[in-house]
Every structure is written in C-alpha cells, then in structure tokens.
Amino acid sequence: MIASSSAPAPRDGARADCIRVMVVDDSVVIRGLLSRWVEADPALELVASHRNGKLAVDDIERSNPDVVVLDIEMPEMDGLTALPLMLRKKRDLVVVMASTLTRRNAEVSLRALSLGAQDYVPKPESTSEVTTSIDFRRELIDKVKALGQRRRGSSAAGGRMMRAQTAAGRTASQTPASAAPAGYTRLAAGAAAQAAAPAIRTRAYSSARPRIVAIGSSTGGPQALQQLFTDIGTAIREVPVVVTQHMPPTFTAILAEHIAKAAMRPAKEADNGEVLKPGHIYVAPGGLHMIVDKDGGQVVARLTDAPPVNFCKPAVDPLFDSVAKVYGSATLAVVLTGMGHDGAAGVRTIAAGGGSVIAQDEATSVVWGMPGAAAQTGMCCEILPITRIGPKISGLLNGGPR
Q1: Which residue among the candidates 342, 356, 361, 365 is catalytic per the annotation?
Q2: How many helices (H) and strands (E) does the chain have?
C-alpha cells in the first residue's frame, strides 16, 4: 500500500537543538513506524515523511532536515537517484540509507556511500520483523543521533571559526604592519577558534617490524577502508591483513570485493580454519566474530558464533585480543571511524603485549567514537588523518622510521 506524503506539524515543546529528521520509504507501515520511533526520542524531531525520492527532493529546502533516512527501492524515484539531488540542495545533509539484506541492496548501499551517504541501516526482511526488531530500532536511532549531532557540531564549529577569523582579522587590521608577523591573522584565528583541549597521551611504536595488520572500523568505515587500502598499495605483500568492519551478512562479502579492487591484492571473507597468507586481506563475515589462532606452526582464522561484544557481531575487541596473543610486539593495529567504543579494550591488550596502534583523527572520522575511545586509552602511538594512515603503515612495514 502506498500512502501520500505527510509533513508533520512541529511537536509541542520541540527544542531548537533537536536533530531534524526526514523519513523516506514507500511502505506506509514502515514509514509510519520509523516516524513514530523518531517522534518518541526527545533528541529528535520529525520534520517530514515521504513515499518516494522525488517528493523528498522537492521538500528538502522547505523541511530543512539534518538527517534523512532514505529507502532504496521506491516508485517514481528510488533512493540512489534521489541521493545526489538531495545533497545538491543541501551539501551538509546527512543521509542514512535503509535497505533489506539482499545482495543488490547491499551493493546499492555501498555505492550510495561513495556518492555521499554517511551510513546505512539494514532492514529486516519482513514488515513484522521490522516491527518487532529491538536491534533495528536501536541501531537506526543511535545512528541518526550520532550522525546528526556530528553534523550539528560541525556546523557550529564552522560558525565559531568564521566568527574567530573575523575577530582575528579585526585585531590584525589594528596591528601595525611592522609589528604583525607573516601569517598572524591565520594563526590568531586558529587560536581563537579552538579551545585548548587536553593533550592525548601517546606511546612509542614497537621496535619490532609488524608481521600482521589488524583493522577495526564501523560507521564511515567502508569509505575509510577504501582510502586506506588505496594508499597502502603493495606494502602489505609480506604480511596478512585482518579486518573487522561492523556489517551484516552479504555486506561484508561485497566490502571484501571493494577492498580487493582498492588494494589490488586478494581480499575475501575469512573461512574458518584457513591459513593466513602474506599479502592477503581477510574480512570478518557479518554475524560472526573473527579471531586468529595458532594451529601447529601456522596462523589461522577462526570464526565463532559467540554472543555479541559491545552490541556488535563481528566485534573488534575479540580480533585485537587474539592478534595480540599470537603476534605480540609484532602487531600493528588500526582503529578507524565508528560509533561506540569497540576496540578500546583490545587496544590496551595490544599495548600490553608491546604492539603498536594507530587511531584515525576526529576531523576525518564520520563518528569519532571508536577511534576516540582508543585514543583516550593513552595506548595509541599516533592519531592520524585517514590520508596519512596508509602511508604510515607502508613506512612501518618497509622498516621506515617510527
């Protein structure tokens, strides 16, 4: 059944700082359910709901949402077609794709990430499952809030920077040219715009050359992994790489295919018991934890159906813990963008074993949850923007300076 679009009236008592949400789905049942979930959260405000992409695109400027939850398969205009049109109208719009777990939808969702969507949420197969799925509701609302808050924070920071630059410019214009060193205005603006933040403690890299690279990521991870593996190039030819990305089944198989193209190295979902080979990339399958283990004189991947860790399956902590146990000081781990704190406990384990950890910085993370939690342990060796992580890994693997 297809229902007409609706533009809800402002909620009584809605605050100006609420995250403004638009829901776009052709199913009247799903659209109504997601809308009620949004309305039930005091941090969110439902500003519109639409049955197809065209109506949503036409309404972006009027409704002015912070976040759009966008279905993929819809009549008249589907989500993938609507996405770039929405972003053209509002460049800082956060779009979360919502799709069922088919291979086609998984491929479209990952394609949407490359076109500017921030994240995706896999919908259960049937309407009844959507209605009863506590995990789906939690994941959807958590992502909308985290990404919406990030967008609001970025906008506010941009405004503060502009005001600081204006103030710094006025100060500089009042300073005699002979007394103002080159770059004064820029430096003053930067100082005024950024409040002094407590320094994050780091530790020295291990003196041992890495024999494995272990990577953990979540929200924003597919984009970050694409960048990282493009930058690493052939540097991983002598070590295996293991990756845990928070993703459901089907998605992880397609992610591995994308990684293989970016790295120009073999990449696949790991099989239980397979020997880890140098130059190969192994991705934890959705719905299973991946760890590494010794089997005689070889290191193998193990897949386990243990309970979720940090609400995640696969989770990063079990992988990091196992890598530290097998490789010790020859471990090199990376924590990329993602919600929550998965991986932070594993970072401590790796550091205790003498290994090295790099965390992605806040500026280039879609959400600085996981890498932020890792950084706050004080056990990371560096906190780097995503464009510098690949080259750093390459340098470490090639015996470069630490």
Answers
A1: 342
A2: 13, 14
